[in-house]
Design brief:
This protein has helices at 106-115, 121-128, 132-147, 187-195, 222-228, 239-253, 255-265, 269-277, 285-294, 301-319, 326-333, 342-350, 352-355, 357-360, 362-376, 385-395, 412-419, and strands at 18-25, 32-38, 53-68, 71-84, 90-92, 98-99, 104-105, 156-164, 167-174, 179-183, 207-210, 234-237. By secondary structure, it is of the alpha/beta class. Strands 1, 2, 3, 4 and 5 form a five-stranded mixed β-sheet that branches. The protein has a five-stranded mixed β-sheet with strand order 10-9-8-11-12. Strands 6-7 form a two-stranded antiparallel ribbon.
Length: 431
């Protein structure tokens, strides 16, 4: 039964193109029921033969509408029924306010999409007075319908991996305005979108900034980019993705030292590995003291040197954006036993011309800092990718307002120092 305090009808606007004729309450679920009739033109010709129709009674059809102050809201549409005077066939009046296949109003569908950006589906179902399973199916139908709308690609396109709904998903962004264009459930979905001949403005893309991890999919190398975007003139690898890839290589190369240190500390290799990848600036005092002890342990001395080489590497590529220190880092890395980081040096050397625009082009520099905020943003309260995607797009759908300037712009002397590093080859896409 409905609570007595709710017996008084709540103020509500009837759906568009309708007039309210009465309000009541449902004893089944406590929802407010609004009886409405259409205000659209009724004397339309027969949809089958074009003949004149005559009214033939009304049929009441119930639709779910936007809840009012947390109370479920239902609309009973008194739909006019007709019969043709010429062909004798029956027909009904039409009203664009209602989605007849789903028995919901158009504004209820829009409300679901807006609420999904800031709340989880269970909470939305409770507000609407609906079964959660049914609401979830309705939501996925609406998101599939919306995702069918063509997405216009920007002139400078960013392709990156972001964490959404517990997994890393490919995302597209506008580099110039720092706006998230769309997020895809998988690499296969992104590939299907990009190879679709109906994707608008693919020929307008002239610059692509991508994460180096995407090349593992054999889809975003320089050669493939030319096929996807025939007018691209600048292919850039994100400096932050290059740093992540380099650190992953360092961990693999230091595995023998990690195991030796773990044995000396009587800890698991997983514990040592996790400590090695953490930034020194984020360590607590106990963890920082543990790393300092490595310096005085014969089994961990090499790992101690490797750790601080890793820290200086990240300072060059992430913090200071000072590429003139790169040669000093190489000289120090080559003094490691067995020149253990030679693979890291080769990785950076081979992609140098593709990564240096991240420090020379202010738009790309701003985009990388903005993308870091996107990748760190955590969406709470939902495990659905579709709902999490909407929340992420809502958070980053507006251009970034805060102007970001490089911490140290490259001077003429620094430009010459970068250009004179002899081992750097041309950007021929050979990798």
């Amino acid at each position: 039964m409905v609570n007595d305090s709710l017996k008084r009808p709540l103020n509500s606007d009837p759906p568009p193109n309708t007039n309210c004729i009465s309000l009541s309450w449902s004893d089944d679920d406590g929802a407010q029921v609004e009886q409405v009739v259409s205000t659209t033109i009724h004397d339309l010709p027969c949809p089958y033969c074009g003949g004149k129709r005559r009214p033939n009674g009304r049929r009441i059809v119930r639709y779910r509408d936007v809840p009012i102050d947390g109370v479920p809201h239902l609309v009973d549409w008194h739909r006019q029924h007709y019969r043709c005077t010429q062909c004798g066939r029956s027909s009904n009046e039409e009203n664009p306010t209602f989605e007849k296949e789903r028995f919901i109003t158009k504004r209820f569908a829009e409300w679901i999409m807006q609420e999904a950006r800031r709340s989880n589906l269970a909470s939305i179902a409770k507000q609407a007075g609906m079964n959660q399973v049914f609401l979830r199916r309705l939501f996925h139908f609406l998101t599939a319908t919306n995702s069918a709308t063509p997405v216009r690609l920007p002139r400078s396109l960013g392709v990156a991996m972001v964490k959404v709904a517990g997994g890393n998903r490919p995302a597209l962004a506008d580099v110039d305005t720092c706006v998230l264009v769309d997020v895809f459930d998988s690499m296969d979905e992104l590939k299907q979108f990009l190879v679709d001949k109906e994707t608008p403005s693919s020929t307008d893309v002239t610059c692509v900034v991508r994460d180096i991890e995407l090349e593992a999919a054999e889809f975003f190398g320089p050669g493939q980019l030319r096929d996807l975007f025939p007018n691209v003139t600048l292919s850039v690898i994100s400096s932050r993705s290059l740093a992540r890839s380099a650190v992953a290589s360092m961990v693999a190369l230091c595995e023998p030292w990690i195991e030796a240190t773990a044995s000396a500390e009587c800890r698991s290799p997983i514990s040592v590995r996790k400590l090695f990848v953490r930034r020194n600036q984020d360590l607590k005092r106990s963890a920082s003291g543990r790393i300092r002890k490595w310096q005085h342990m014969s089994e961990a001395a090499s790992l101690f040197r490797a750790y601080w080489l890793k820290e200086r590497f990240l300072e060059i590529w992430l913090d200071d954006a000072n590429l003139t220190r790169w040669q000093d880092w190489i000289d120090e890395a080559n003094r490691l036993p067995e020149q253990r980081f030679q693979e890291v040096i080769t990785l950076v050397e081979s992609r140098w011309n593709e990564v240096t625009p991240c420090f020379k082009d202010l738009s790309i520099f701003r985009y990388e800092r903005w993308l870091e905020d996107v990748q760190k943003y955590e969406i709470r309260g939902t495990h659905s990718f579709a709902a999490a995607r909407l929340a992420l797009l809502a958070k980053f759908e507006k251009p970034s307002e805060a102007p970001l300037a490089p911490p140290s712009s490259l001077s003429e002397e620094e430009e010459r120092a970068i250009a004179n590093i002899s081992y750097l080859g041309s950007n021929d896409g050979s990798g």
